[in-house]
């Protein structure tokens, strides 16, 4: 019987082969990994489970931390007025539209439809970051897309807790309770991330050993996420805050020049490993879903999620058309189509309590939307970026 370590070793070997083949075939790496996971189940039965605990405690923290590490604070602060409507009102409108569509068109009970609408509304940092990094997108567009995918988890986490509580009848929540949950989840996560990053970086300033510095940043990434989740704050916002502080201020005296290069290389590798495992496991578990009974609901979900994404982007981007923060229409199209779903939605759905009405249907339809996101949106994202001139066409060099 294979041990977990042996399974992970095999998956890393598979990921390395897929990376080589995907590059030669000009196939998106994430798509290649999911396909590899699907084929793996037919040639080598695989029973490594994909659970909320695996996603949230092992794989998500390094991906969020690595992405935040390279987000420039000055640029993020400049575009925050644009991002805030997307990640708050826009996300809630998207969730609401999806929920109503699942209720009216798919016939789901409003409680189940509401929970699904919330968990599927947030774009997934894992899928978004992997796709745009692989495509070689830089500048404001990449910042907008990546920062939005990271920030909107704050709203989604609050709404998800409220929706599940209402759906399962475990908690009676009034307006005051909802307001308190919002403040606690968002600001609690930010405070935890800032406190951990600040204290650990203070320790990092006492050494110039790059191995110790790598170890300390690993502590920052995981402890910020896990401690925030322990207190029912937003782990993503906590890890994001910690990454921003480390990337923008940690190098100013706390981390040595040699350590900076080592830390950068380490986190790029950590993100590669986490990405590889997530997408292969998604492919493995796609084959274990019975899509037949929920096919109609899945089609409704894909349509509603796509329309909901449009509602969350275009009207709010239009608010800035007459300002210096105007978002070009081609960037709006990319933001709309780049709203990929993946491991985050799966983690939330798999973590639903067993008493949740229609839990099985929610999980299976979530897998369907993720499959659409990976194969349809993932396969067309790079051609769309080329069409709008965000990346050079094949055979041409980038003007950088």
Question: What report would you give on this structure?
Answer:
The chain has about 400 residues and is an all-alpha fold. It has a single domain (about 50-385), classed as Na+/H+ antiporter like fold (Up-down Bundle), CATH 1.20.1530.20. The protein is about 75% helix and about 0% strand. It contains 15 helices and no strands. It has helices at about 5-25, 30-45, 50-70, 75-105, 110-120, 125-135, 140-170, 175-205, 210-230, 235-250, 255-285, 295-320, 330-335, 345-350, 360-385. It is globular, with a radius of gyration of 20 Å. The termini are far apart. The model has no long low-confidence stretch (mean pLDDT about 85).
Q: How many structural domains does the protein architecture include?
A: 1
Strand content: under 5%
Counting helices, strands and paired strands, the structural category is mainly alpha
CATH topology title? Na+/H+ antiporter like fold
Query: What would you report as the Rg, rounded to the nearest angstrom?
Result: 20 Å
CATH first level: Mainly Alpha
Order of helices and strands: HHHHHHHHHHHHHHH
Distance between the termini: 51 Å
Could you report the average pLDDT, rounded to the nearest whole number? 87
Uncertain stretches of 5 or more adjacent residues = none
- Estimate the helix proportion, in percent: over 70%
Question: Mind summarizing the main beta sheet?
Answer: none
| Name given to the CATH architecture | Up-down Bundle
What's the count of strands? 0
Any idea what the shape is? globular
| Separate helix tally | 15
């Amino acid at each position: 019987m294979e041990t977990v370590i042996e399974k992970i070793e095999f998956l890393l070997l598979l990921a390395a082969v897929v990376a080589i083949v995907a590059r030669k075939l000009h196939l998106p790496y994430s798509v290649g990994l999911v396909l590899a996971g699907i084929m793996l189940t037919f040639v080598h039965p695989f029973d490594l489970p994909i659970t909320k605990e695996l996603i949230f405690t092992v794989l998500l923290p390094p991906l969020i931390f690595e992405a935040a590490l390279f987000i420039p604070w000055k640029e993020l602060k400049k575009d925050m007025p644009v991002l805030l409507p997307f990640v708050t009102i826009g996300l809630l409108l998207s969730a609401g539209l999806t929920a109503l569509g699942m209720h009216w068109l798919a016939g789901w009970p409003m409680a189940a439809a509401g929970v699904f609408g919330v968990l599927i509304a947030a774009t997934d940092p894992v899928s978004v970051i992997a796709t745009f990094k692989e495509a070689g997108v830089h500048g404001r567009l990449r910042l907008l897309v990546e920062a939005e995918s990271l920030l909107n988890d704050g709203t989604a986490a609050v709404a998800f807790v409220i929706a599940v509580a209402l759906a399962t009848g475990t908690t009676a929540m009034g307006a005051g309770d909802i307001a308190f949950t919002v403040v606690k989840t968002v600001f609690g996560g930010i405070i935890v991330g800032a406190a951990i990053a600040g204290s650990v970086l203070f320790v990092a300033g006492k050494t110039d050993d790059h191995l110790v510095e790598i170890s300390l940043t690993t502590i920052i990434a995981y402890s910020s996420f896990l401690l925030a989740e322990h207190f029912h704050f937003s782990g993503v916002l906590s890890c994001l805050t910690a990454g921003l502080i480390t990337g923008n201020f940690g190098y100013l005296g706390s981390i040595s020049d040699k350590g900076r290069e080592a830390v950068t290389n380490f986190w790029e590798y950590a993100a590669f490993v986490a990405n590889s495992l997530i997408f292969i496991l998604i492919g493995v578990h796609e084959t274990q879903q019975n899509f037949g009974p929920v096919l109609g609901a899945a089609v409704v979900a894909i349509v509603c999620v796509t329309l909901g994404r449009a509602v969350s982007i275009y009207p709010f981007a239009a608010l800035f058309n007459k300002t210096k923060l105007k978002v070009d229409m081609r960037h709006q199209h990319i933001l709309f189509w780049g709203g990929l779903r993946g491991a985050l939605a799966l983690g939330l759905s798999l973590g639903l309590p067993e008493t949740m009405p229609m839990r099985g249907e929610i999980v299976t339809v979530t897998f369907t939307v993720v499959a659409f996101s990976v194969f349809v949106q993932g396969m067309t994202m790079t051609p769309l970026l080329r069409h709008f001139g965000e990346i050079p066409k094949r055979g041409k060099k980038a003007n950088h």
